[in-house]
């Protein structure tokens, strides 16, 4: 049996991605072997491939390296002592984060404790869209202490993290404001948010008295959004590059402010899967690329204008 994997051969443009053939791994005690159906593509994969950030510096001597943290697929074998899953069950997980990666593989061994069951009522595509982005969304809203009735401003509501954050905040009965470009205004409105076209005017001219800011853009957009907040508001800034600057400025203005690094949590993924299965949450899949088009998938994420998620089909 062949195990094709997409590897970063050296740091650089998307064209440095290549397909390599590896052995199908054998599950160790407590691990299951997953035949991956879909792998999610996240901005961190793209940054690491470009040689930027912590995962790149930690893995620079380990190239070729297999990126990828989001998988969905089927359990095909169980290591000794496995009790949660049987061969034939569908699972999803947020795996190998942040240093190991490995999701862009046709077969991968994962400790069963890191996986969630995917019931028949949700597709494997939807399940692969949820792990990293969905947990970032939930953890950001938790850190922001978002509650019923609060005014919550989410920058970049149409992206992988944003489209889930908007829906979870709406489900929590917050009043949600979000920024997007003109093409996503209707989409954001259908999710229940007040949509603001950031290309038309700065968000600070359109929103006042927000209790919580969830910043998924960083830089100048985040600095402008601080003007939308009421006294004592909370800021959660997600892009790591500008987090220090935004937090410093926010604290000077008297806000509570924090950056964050998402922390894999299978119970949270169970909840997100449940929400999709009962129709409380809808994943938006921008495009599924066959695994031999991973270069195009990375180019798409680099546009910065993906609606929802990009996936790789690892079955072809
Ligand atoms: N710290 C962590 O643990 C962590 C975890 C996950 C993600 N992140 C970071 O969080 C950020 C968001 O991640 P993601 O996966 O959601 O990215 P993404 O899916 O690539 O985001 C794309 C979205 O951003 C929107 N956008 C671009 N520029 C915008 C602007 N100036 N104002 C408002 N919206 C804008 C686009 O909407 P339009 O097309 O309408 O412009 C598009 O829908 C990335 O920087 C990522 O690296 C950090």
What features would you describe in this structure?
Helix content is 27%, strand content 28%. The protein has two domains: 3-130 and 283-313, Medium-chain alcohol dehydrogenases, catalytic domain (Quinone Oxidoreductase, Chain A, domain 1, Alpha-Beta Complex); 133-259, Rossmann fold (3-Layer(aba) Sandwich). Helix 4 packs across helix 5. The chain is of the alpha/beta class. Strands 3, 4, 5, 6, 7, 14 and 15 form a seven-stranded mixed β-sheet that branches. It has a six-stranded parallel β-sheet with strand order 10-9-8-11-12-13, with helices on both faces. The protein is globular, with a radius of gyration of 19 Å. The structure holds NADP nicotinamide-adenine-dinucleotide phosphate. NADP nicotinamide-adenine-dinucleotide phosphate is lined by residues 42-44, 132-133, 136, 155-156, 158-162, 179-181, 184, 198, 216-217, 221, 238-240, 260-262, 301, 304-307. Residues 42-44, 132-133, 136, 155-156, 158-162, 179-181, 184, 198, 216-217, 221, 238-240, 260-262, 301, 304-307 line the site of NADP nicotinamide-adenine-dinucleotide phosphate.
- Give start-end ranges of low-pLDDT stretches: none
Give me the strand/helix succession.
Answer: EEEHHEEEEHHEHEHEEHEHEHEHE
Report the span from N to C terminus: 14 Å
CATH homologous superfamily of the largest domain, by name? Medium-chain alcohol dehydrogenases, catalytic domain
Into how many domains do the coordinates divide?
Answer: 2
Quaternary arrangement of the chains shown?
Answer: single chain
Q: Report the portion of residues in β strands.
A: 25-35%
Architecture of the largest domain, CATH level 2?
Alpha-Beta Complex
* Beta-strand segment tally: 15
Under CATH, the topology of the largest domain can be stated as Quinone Oxidoreductase, Chain A, domain 1
> Helicity range of the residues?
25-40%
Protein name: NADPH:quinone reductase
InterPro entries: ADH-like_N, ER, GroES-like_sf, NAD(P)-bd_dom_sf, YIM1/Zinc_Alcohol_DH_Fams
Pfam family, one: ADH_zinc_N_2
GO molecular function: oxidoreductase activity
